[in-house]
Amino acid sequence: MDKLKAIRSFVAIADAGSFTAAATALATSLPSVVRQLAGLEALLGARLFNRSTRHVALTEQGRLYLLHARSLLAADAEADAQLQADQSEPQGRLVITAPVLFGQRYLCPAINRFIEHYPKLSVEVHLLDRLVNLVEEGFDLGLRIGEMHDSSLVGQHLADLRRVYAAAPAYLASSGTPTTPAALREHNCLRSTQQQGHWMFQQQGKNMPQAVSGRLVFNQVAPLVEACVAGLGIGHFSIYQVAPYLQSGQLQLVLEDYELAARPLHILYPHSKLLAARSKALIAWIKQEISVVRATWE
């Protein structure tokens, strides 16, 4: 039994004063209205009407239930109206997450332009360098770099991000340009705490680890990039982290023939969620923004 449909039948009977008039008001058959009421009374375990051959009258329990039924139908109508308004003009609140540096450099500027364009929307941004559980942590959307392994999420592909090795021209002029991974043994390699003393390379489809060392180790990417731009050594980066400096000539790529396969960038949302207009609008906005800068990552 459709309980909401049965409640509508109950309210229609109370308003019309008869089963026949209620059926007419609902544009349905008399047997259907009778069945809906019988099912509701059985579900509630209470008699809602006193019936005679010509008239129906609410019982005391029926009068009490009618108040709640009207409130329920009003709330349902309001929810429908709100959803329709949301679909026609995006409004409400969105919560999105992204890696820290990517968010600072690309997502946050895009979000700033987005909320200027949609004055009825608000956005809460969480920049986190960890794997976020979108469902459990209450996020509407998330940007993630790497292969998708969570079947509870839907992903839309935005770009492929090269994994590159870069250094400042001044550093290469003074220390030489490495032509093979093994040559890095003679260089100061700027590392993150996650790289654990070796970098991975690829040649002819095979991964090749190479031990590296250096005098600077950071737990965040931003100071690692700054040290590289300052000419203090060679760094291993995702292309988006150094793209502006490559464009300006402050950094240049090395060992391009040994790069690992590019990693995909996706925008994700929970599989079970019916996408609201506000989510669709933000996804479309981010895709457009990324399409503008994607050429600098190739």
From TrEMBL:
Molecular-function GO term, any one: sequence-specific DNA binding
Alphabetically ordered keywords of this record: DNA-binding, Transcription, Transcription regulation
GO biological process, one term: DNA-templated transcription
Keyword Transcription among UniProt keywords: yes
CDD domains recorded: PBP2_CrgA_like
Domain HTH lysR-type, residue spans: 1-59
Record-linked Pfam families: HTH_1, LysR_substrate
UniProt keyword annotation of Transcription regulation present: yes
Transmembrane segments: none
SUPFAM superfamilies: Periplasmic binding protein-like II, Winged helix' DNA-binding domain
Matching PANTHER family: HTH-TYPE TRANSCRIPTIONAL ACTIVATOR TTDR-RELATED (PTHR30537:SF5), HTH-TYPE TRANSCRIPTIONAL REGULATOR (PTHR30537)
Family in the record: Belongs to the LysR transcriptional regulatory family.
Protein name (database record): LysR family transcriptional regulator
Protein's organism: Undibacterium parvum
